[in-house]
Write a structure and sequence with these properties.
179 residues, Arc Repressor Mutant, subunit A, 10% strand
């Protein structure tokens, strides 16, 4: 999600041209968008700070979660990059740091000379297990406890609506590669 200038959000663009098809956002809609950005950024900051108290970055946790959920606790590096939606160069640098800490292991891929198989190590599994319960308590404290069951249901509906709205874009992106 990117930031949108007030001019763009209200229906214009930075060159001043207007789109006859696009409805302008209301100031209330724009305020809601900004609240979404600010709130999700703050939740990430708070949860990230608490993860770091357990010697894991949010990025470490994201990689370990993907590997924990994968068959045989391993993924090809390209599949891992796609799963966590990272550029391959970013992932490669981060995996190097995690490998030095013995959280993951990289092995040459038997079917592709350019690829690597990323595996969760026993140490990575131990660190992930140790961090998961406190991380889940943190999510509950900072997110779930703020909402009623009705608000959760409404939020679920809203998120499904957004996902369905974005689906044509996401499907085209997956078919055509990253744009």
């Amino acid at each position: 999600m990117g930031l949108v200038s007030t001019t763009e959000a209200l229906g214009g663009d930075s060159s001043g041209a207007r789109s006859a098809v696009r409805r302008r956002m209301t100031s209330s809609e724009l305020a809601t968008w900004r609240a979404l950005l600010d709130t999700t950024a703050e939740l990430r900051r708070v949860l990230g700070t608490e993860l770091q108290e357990m010697s894991l970055s949010p990025a470490d946790y994201q990689v370990l979660l993907a590997l924990t959920e994968a068959n045989d606790k391993q993924l090809r590096s390209s599949d891992l990059a796609q799963t966590i939606d990272w550029e391959r160069s970013r992932l490669s640098h981060h995996l190097g740091r995690m490998e030095r800490r013995r959280l993951i292991r990289r092995d040459d891929c038997a079917t592709d000379n350019r690829g690597a198989e990323i595996s969760l190590t026993a140490e990575g599994a131990r660190v992930f297990r140790r961090a998961t319960a406190p991380h889940m308590r943190s999510i509950k404290r900072h997110f779930a406890d703020a909402l009623t069951p009705e608000q959760f249901a409404a939020l679920g509906d809203i998120l499904r609506s957004l996902q369905n709205h974005l689906y044509p874009y996401l499907a085209a992106r997956a078919e055509g590669g990253r744009r």
